[in-house]
Design a protein that fits this description.
The chain is an alpha/beta fold. Helix content is 30%, strand content 14%. It has a seven-stranded mixed β-sheet, sandwiched between helices. Strand 5, helix 4 and strand 6 form a beta-alpha-beta unit. Helix 4 packs antiparallel against helix 6. The longest helix has 30 residues.
């Protein structure tokens, strides 16, 4: 459910009682009309969306809280540093308000690219409210359990030469080099990945975005881990219209359920207030 009216909804929250909070910053596709008019034909496809992630994770951990951004990352990227600092210095990436897509193609009408005032307005209208909701839910479940685990849910095309060489592994776990969560949480997620027949990597090309790095404070009882899925694992095609493949997805959902279950079990085992 959401605490906003449908007309102005920026995010939606489904509160749960588990210590696990699922965050979904890139599954939204909404672009306000005034912003849509400034996007070029390519930009209006919002192709770099994390397609169907909310559907993929639905019901996998019944008591988990979900916080989902409803706006497109082309409006503003909810998983980028609000100060505009690059997450991956020296590597190709996209910015807080992207000017290009993942293939290095412009997404705005020439002369209509967002400026500093646009960015400030979108931070206030979209980025900040979404993260206020994430922070509030982490605090709420930590108050219940004495521990909170943020699981940041992502997907991306498996082949994007502008961003990385070769084909991306199926499951890309990120813990910012082991600093954003307890080693037991990292190990639980990796064990589930290794128990599957999917390819996987820990802290490879995707080490965790701003969400993981910002909220992951294990010493304070708040842990964060990111999973970047190759879209080949659950989509019929990694191109428009990016249709969901129910058979592929059902297989993947079993691995995701196992991963989330292991993480939750650890969190409950060390809960100080259950």
């Amino acid at each position: 459910m959401s605490d906003q009216s449908p007309a102005d909804a920026v995010y939606e929250v489904s509160p749960g009682t588990s210590p696990v909070v699922l965050a979904m910053p890139h599954t939204g596709t909404h672009v306000p009309p005034a912003i849509m008019a400034r996007l070029n034909e390519l930009g209006q496809t919002v192709s770099d969306t994390d397609w169907h992630i909310h559907r993929l994770y639905d019901g996998l951990l019944p008591n988990a809280t979900k916080v989902r951004a409803l706006f497109s990352r082309y409006v503003i990227d909810a998983n980028r540093d609000p100060e505009g600092v690059s997450l991956y210095p020296g590597q190709n990436t996209t910015t807080l308000v992207p000017t290009i897509d993942f293939d290095n193609n412009p997404i705005w009408v020439e002369g209509q690219e967002p400026g500093a005032q646009d960015i400030a307005e979108r931070l206030a209208a979209f980025h900040q409210p979404y993260h206020a909701a994430v922070a509030a839910e982490l605090k709420r479940v930590k108050d219940i359990h004495g521990i909170a685990v943020l699981f940041d849910c992502h997907s991306i095309r498996s082949n994007i030469p502008f961003l990385f060489e070769g084909t991306l592994p199926d499951l890309n776990l990120g813990t910012n080099g082991g600093t954003s969560c307890a080693p037991e949480i990292e190990a639980a997620a990796l064990a589930a990945a290794k128990a599957s027949d999917y390819t996987s990597v820990l802290n490879g090309r995707f080490k965790g975005g701003w969400t993981t790095r910002h909220y992951g404070r294990p010493e304070e009882g708040i842990h964060a881990i990111q999973l970047e899925l190759a879209q080949s694992t659950h989509l019929a095609s990694e191109a428009l219209p990016f249709d969901y493949d129910p058979a592929k997805a059902e297989k993947l959902r079993k691995t995701l359920a196992d991963m989330l279950g292991r993480i939750e079990a650890y969190a409950l085992s060390v809960s100080t207030r259950a």
